[in-house]
Specification:
Number of helices: 14
CATH superfamily of the largest domain: Zn peptidases
CATH class of the largest domain: Alpha Beta
Site (Important for catalytic activity): 258
Organism: Magnusiomyces paraingens
Helix content: 25-40%
Mean pLDDT: 94
Strand content: 15-25%
Bound molecules: ligand BES, zinc ion
Cofactor: Mn(2+)
Family: Belongs to the peptidase M20A family.
CATH architecture of the largest domain: 3-Layer(aba) Sandwich
Shape: globular
Domain Peptidase M20 dimerisation: 238-394
Strand order of the largest sheet: 1-4-8-5-9-19
Length: 502
């Protein structure tokens, strides 16, 4: 009779042999998928071009029909591949109308499934098909809604990296499996929204409704809606900052006035507003609202050590900024400021004169917009109260006769997950297979508030698997995605699905 030890050894040896067969099998299947991805490159670029051509800007009410066109485009590209997508309507958008005063519907959520070979896990893929606004005048070198292939391999156009590129990349991945004749070893569930850039209105309720229906049985979530930190090193991401967005409205005289007639005779809303805004943050980024720093989790030596391992230089940051306007001298300080400390940004002023030329107007009512990126352990309700109190106090100290209103426009919570689970393991292996290096584990400064909702509602691990680079210029003029990242990104997605199913 075999002793327990030797039988275990035998069992392990058997398992090893079995695994070896599976992996060699896996690699030949994966190789077929990869080579199909290479073959289909022109088709994949054309698909992205068609997607970019639809100006699906969620923050521009007059373009709402473009979001419906975009949803339709995704549906029509996916359905021939066997993906059943349903267009889920969410009703009218709160408090927003077109320029003609008509109410507008929220963009639909595309929800659907693709049955895999049945052996593996059930993975929910989230992405968004809406994009940020883009106008030629903002500094684009070409029409933002016409994809341009640059000789150096850059694909330039609004949404290429955020988030049309990744959404289209998932469709491409499915096509490659299908045409290579390889079964996808996991079941897929899709949740593709059209309101992410405008606060994901309606999505949280949708997830709560669907957790026991369409999203039932999901084992893990994969979100591809972020970027590498630098330009060479692939990453997997396990944390995001939250964002709380505020407006300060100051109203004074009953209508806009001529500054020659009234300058010096009335309290001016724009003067009040600049004073109040200037008391929010210092030029080097220190938030001046008391009480926020005290809520930020303390840096442990263990966490501090993690930043030393990230492939990122201060020059990477300078390259992404386009010059050397960095606040910090070291990459570690810069990364910590981006990932684990709050930041306050002032975005703009509604109602103020902002055209070229020199109009001598006194605006009667202005709204300053600012946001705070939030981090563990900031309590969002407490934060709102601190912001309101501070702004009211700053305004009161001006002794102005104007009226002040401070409001929270939207808030999404920060998220820090645990990267030690099968979901990250599959993505780590996929990254190594495609890029030949181990990915860095990163947090990010941007926000995808729905990541936390998925984790809390479905109680399953969320993984962020980016395909673009840190210098892609998401939200900026001349947003790009490098063709290598697009194609290798599709391969990484394919390998991820493959390993997640094994
Ligand atoms: N893709 C970004 C989120 C992101 C940015 C993740 C940078 C990681 C790094 C997303 O499209 C986005 O811009 N989200 C908004 C959310 C907001 C409107 C609630 C953001 O971060 O401003
Ligand atoms: Zn995005």
């Amino acid at each position: 009779m075999l002793s327990l030890r030797s039988s275990t050894r035998l069992f392990c040896a058997k398992r090893l042999a079995y695994q070896r067969t599976v992996y060699s099998q896996a690699s030949s299947d994966l190789k077929r998928v990869f080579s199909k991805i290479d073959d289909l490159k022109p088709r994949f670029i054309k698909r992205l071009k068609d997607a970019v051509a639809i100006p699906s800007v969620s923050s521009e009410p007059d373009r709402r029909n473009e979001l419906f066109r975009m949803a339709q485009f995704i549906k029509s590209e996916s359905e021939p591949l066997g993906v059943t997508l349903q267009q889920k309507e969410l009703g009218l958008q709160d408090g927003v109308t077109t320029s003609k005063g008509e109410p507008i519907p929220l963009p639909p959520i595309l929800q659907g499934t693709l049955k895999g070979s049945g052996s593996g896990k059930r993975i929910l893929i989230y992405g968004h098909y809406d994009v940020q606004p883009a106008n030629l005048e903002d500094g684009w070198s070409s029409d933002p809604f016409t994809l341009v292939e640059k000789p150096d391999g850059r694909l330039v156009g609004r949404g290429v990296t955020d988030d049309k590129g990744p959404v289209i990349a998932w469709i491409n991945t499915i096509q490659a499996f299908k045409e290579a004749g390889v079964e996808i070893p996991v079941d897929l569930v899709f949740c593709i929204e059209g309101m992410e850039e405008s606060g994901s209105e309606g999505l949280e309720d949708f997830i709560k409704q669907e957790k026991s229906k369409g999203f039932k049985g999901v084992d893990g979530i994969c979100i591809s809606d972020n970027y590498w930190v630098g330009i060479k090193q692939p990453v997997l991401t396990y944390g995001l900052r939250g964002v709380s967005y505020y407006s300060i409205t100051i109203s004074g005289p009953s209508e806009d006035l001529h500054s020659g007639l009234f300058g010096g005779t009335t309290y001016e809303p724009m003067i009040d507003l600049t004073h109040v805004l200037s008391r929010l943050v210092t030029p080097n980024g220190k938030i001046l609202i008391p009480g926020i720093d005290e809520m930020v989790a303390l840096l442990t030596p263990e966490e501090s050590g993690l930043y030393d391992k990230i492939t990122f230089t201060i020059n990477d940051l300078k390259d992404a900024l386009g010059n050397d306007t960095t606040i910090h001298e070291t990459p570690k300080e810069a990364l910590m400021s981006r990932w684990r400390y709050p930041a306050l940004s002032i975005h703009g002023v509604e109602g103020a004169f902002s055209s070229p030329g020199a109009k001598t107007v006194i605006p009667a009512k202005v709204s300053g917009k600012f946001s705070i990126r939030t981090v563990p352990d900031i309590d969002l309700k407490k934060l709102d109260q601190l912001v309101f109190d501070h702004v009211e106090k700053s305004f009161a100290s001006l002794n102005s006769k104007n009226k002040l209103k401070v409001e929270l426009i939207h808030a999404g919570k920060w998220w820090v997950g645990d990267p030690n689970n099968w979901n990250f393991e599959a993505a780590r292996k996929a990254t190594e297979t495609v890029w030949g290096v181990e990915p860095d584990m990163t947090r990010e400064g941007g926000s995808i508030p729905i990541a936390l909702t998925f984790e809390e509602e479905l109680k399953k691990p969320v993984l962020l698997l980016p395909i673009g680079r840190g210098d892609d210029g998401a939200h900026s003029a001349s947003e790009k995605l490098d063709t290598v990242n697009y194609i290798q990104g599709i391969k990484t997605m394919a390998a991820y699905l493959y390993y997640a199913g094994k």
